[in-house]
Amino acid sequence: MTETVIIAPARISADNPGWLRLKAAASSLQLLQVQDGSVPDRDAHPAAAGHVAAIVESIEELAPRFPHDAAYLEAVTADFRDWATAGFGVPDFLASLLVFQPQEQREDGLQHLVVFPMYTQNGSSSRLVEAVLIDVIWPEFIAALEAGDYSNRLFVPIRFLDFTAGYNTNSAVLFPETVAVRATPTFTWGAIFADREAARFRRVLRAAADITSLELPAGAAELLEDQELAEAAFVMWDLIHDRTHMRGDLPFDPFMIKQRMPFFLYSLEELRCDLTAFRESVRIEKDNDAGPEARRHAKLVQYAIIFDRIFRFAITGSRVRNYDGLGGQLLFAWLHQQHVLHWTDSRLSIDWDRVAESVIALGARIDELYWRSIDRPKTAHWLAAYQLISGTVTPNPASVWAKGPDALPLSGPPRGLTDQVLDDEFPLSMFYEALEKKMRPIIESTAGITGSSTL
């Protein structure tokens, strides 16, 4: 009896002719779309129809390479045809979005071809047709962690192979909520480009260490030399961070959906999740029952969190309600005031033997704030959060919030309190002002970076 041998479809690369035709057609179609994704100019409809036909033909040509996505690729071509037939109004790709379920096939190296009208976070705010060719990153030790104490069925770490213009930006996520649909479904997955996170981390850390004369510990230096190692560390960090948003003693919806709040609350939530990932990585590093790869990467995650937060987060983006920036400032100032981080004789140094204890202590303070605020009114929670931050990071001298409750409109709706928060409520320190000027070209150069980019 002859055994049937199933041959996996050959992988496609960024120079595949079918992919290049699809990418070119999507890019041309973008030029005809307006912000909501529609093509309102009737004179442009023949050209739009031609681009959609090219997209559909290219997807159908490439589909045999993606048998695991057969249902999605069939559905998305149907959505494109329906959109064109209906006259290129606001696109509705709900049918194909519901079929695309990458979290069900987390296999290391598995490729996906993803085409949707969507905006890209930290990139385009318009729902244009974007296409990305991606790899799943799913090392064995990550699979073991996710199957154990760190379950997160929605989490899909990925790597760029190629993309259209919307992703030639700082965007490092592929989220279903960005897709143009007529009704909001239940979201079942979230994908994060670990290769972009790792690549920009490596570029920024290399420059920052040189500028500040920081002597890197061996593990951090190893991250600079190995992109795949850094990717795996970021996957581990993201796995724990992402699941933390819905876990713990939470006084409110951690994602703050449809809530208008002072931006510094977002700072604490994102930092809480990162410090939880740090704390859990310390635990895994010391756990003899954890596998050697998990323990090795747990140490690397700690370096990644510290350095990405204090070097990239703190000085990336504008000073308008920059909640990630504030989180980085808070971590740096906390470590400095705990005498764990030192800026002396124009050199930066860190007492690594004391870092874990200090970082975990900051995380515990945020956890305590959340736990106590379960019993507090909203405005009291906001005031307590501000007090926690302003006790370490100096507020803007013009701040009304810094003057205390007596200066704030506490008798009115909470919106009045939010309106009193300055765009740059916590300005950069003198250290960061100087560092930002030197680092600005490096940080700007990371837009569009991928794991295959030259460092």
Main features:
single chain, 455 residues, 2 domains, two-stranded antiparallel sheet, 9% strand
Topology:
Blueprint: H1 17-30, H2 45-62, H3 70-85, H4 94-99, E1 111-118, E2 128-136, H5 140-147, E3 155-163, E4 173-174, E5 190-193, H6 194-212, H7 218-225, H8 227-244, H9 263-285, H10 292-312, H11 323-337, E6 341-344, E7 347-350, H12 352-373, H13 378-390, H14 414-419, H15 430-444
Parallel strand pairs: 3-5
Antiparallel strand pairs: 1-2, 2-3, 4-5, 6-7
Helix pairs in contact: 1-2, 2-3, 6-8, 6-10, 6-15, 8-9, 8-10, 9-10, 9-11, 9-12, 10-11, 12-13
Order of helices and strands: HHHHEEHEEEHHHHHHEEHHHH
User: How much is the average pLDDT?
Assistant: 94
Assign a percent range to the helix content: 40-55%
Unreliable stretches (pLDDT < 50, length at least 5) are: 1-7
Number of helices: 15
Number of domains: 2
Radius of gyration: 24 Å
Largest sheet, spatial ordering of strands: 1-2-3-5-4
Count the E strands. Answer: 7
Structure report:
- This protein has 455 residues and is of the alpha+beta class.
- The N terminus is likely disordered.
- The radius of gyration is 24 Å and the shape is globular.
- It is 49% helix and 9% strand.
- A five-stranded mixed beta sheet has the order 1-2-3-5-4.
